[in-house]
Amino acid sequence: MGATMSATKHRDARGRRRVAVTGIGLVTSLGQGQADTWSALVEGRSGVRAIRRFPTEGLRTRIAGTVDFLDTDPLVAPALSLRFAETAAEEAVGQSGIGGKGDFPGALFVAVPPVEMEWPQRRALAEAAAENGDVTYASLQRAAASRRFDDWHDLFIFGTVADRIAERFGTRGSPISLSTACSSGATAIQLGVEAIRRGETRAALCIGTDGSVNPESLIRFSLLSALSTQNDPPEGASKPFSKNRDGFVMGEGAAALVLEDAEAATARGARILGYVLGCGEKGDGFHRTRSSPDGAPVVAAIRASLEDAGLGPEGIDTVNAHGTSTPENDKMEALGLTAVFGERTAGLPVTSNKSMIGHTLTAAGAIEAAVSLLTILHGRIPPTINYAQPDPAIALDVVAQARDVPVRTVLSNSFGFGGQNTCLVLGAEPA
């Protein structure tokens, strides 16, 4: 199909199936469900708090946006990620009204954090290996194969979260697990969009989830000098685009979107909450943790998403920024936005949800896409809190107070370590 085709209600200008969103599910440090998270966001309330899950004495960073209201045992990343994903998916699938109980008529794409045994499990394994002598590779293998560790085999396998979600909701085909750093949640949505456009499925359940707030993760990010050390007060630490920003704050949670072929959704009488109009991605091979100094990959990803949506820079109403609160990311994102939007940048509202929920890592792209859709539905842009000292080197219209304006399109940016850049354009009912 050529790009010169005229758009119709259920097809875009390229003749591709429009991708509608019919269900949204959210779990963040602000609460369970769309209502709790949205009300807190627009009120400018923070979910960042002192960590109580484990001792933090001696750590430079002692705060995070933790989800402390869902019982999970054990408190390890795979179990937490699964719990958050299930909770978000239940809300999204329930709202969509698609399929019957345990009979989702489409594919599953789940963004999950990298999986590895955490310190308590490593210690337990070492103690078991030492029961009959020295700890050696062979004794560790024998201990790991014993029945007492049977539960770990499933728990610490990369595909476990997706497999259990697929079993619970009855999704079709092989579930897809992916991990593309901080863009993972957006990538899961992109894969769902592409599968529907190709006609491979009429629906997709797309999830981003992350429960990685643990001592090892905190220490690793601290060693990279990536985390804020402004522990007191916790709610003031994440300050995207501010002059006194000093790093990101870890967060956790999940978001789930039910995507559908718009024609199929309309035919079954579903309420359409919005559309995924465009997806763009660009790899950056400059450095494992730093962006190219010229910002070219960021610019390319933003432009690709606009082109995919069939929009020019004038077609975006607001930007849900990646906005991590690290010195380099915020500067690079501002550079990218200025390159794409030019003089319009000064009047283009930009906000960062991470100021209130922290950086939810693998889940961030999905959570922020969900919030972008709620922004369109409610006609209100959530604020970037803690924006008290604007950075004179960043010439953006940062939304410091919730702003009531008509919103039909949102650019949602996700940029990750390893050069993973993914941008989504979310929109209201096409004209």
Automatic annotation (TrEMBL):
<dbReference type="InterPro" id="IPR020841">
    <property type="entry name" value="PKS_Beta-ketoAc_synthase_dom"/>
</dbReference>
<dbReference type="InterPro" id="IPR014030">
    <property type="entry name" value="Ketoacyl_synth_N"/>
</dbReference>
<keyword id="KW-0808">Transferase</keyword>
<dbReference type="InterPro" id="IPR014031">
    <property type="entry name" value="Ketoacyl_synth_C"/>
</dbReference>
<dbReference type="Pfam" id="PF02801">
    <property type="entry name" value="Ketoacyl-synt_C"/>
</dbReference>
<protein>
    <submittedName>
        <fullName>3-oxoacyl-[acyl-carrier-protein] synthase 2</fullName>
    </submittedName>
</protein>
<feature type="domain" description="Ketosynthase family 3 (KS3)">
    <location>
        <begin position="16"/>
        <end position="428"/>
    </location>
</feature>
<dbReference type="Pfam" id="PF00109">
    <property type="entry name" value="ketoacyl-synt"/>
</dbReference>
<comment type="pathway">
    <text>Lipid metabolism; fatty acid biosynthesis.</text>
</comment>
<dbReference type="InterPro" id="IPR000794">
    <property type="entry name" value="Beta-ketoacyl_synthase"/>
</dbReference>
<comment type="similarity">
    <text>Belongs to the thiolase-like superfamily. Beta-ketoacyl-ACP synthases family.</text>
</comment>
<dbReference type="InterPro" id="IPR016039">
    <property type="entry name" value="Thiolase-like"/>
</dbReference>
<dbReference type="InterPro" id="IPR018201">
    <property type="entry name" value="Ketoacyl_synth_AS"/>
</dbReference>
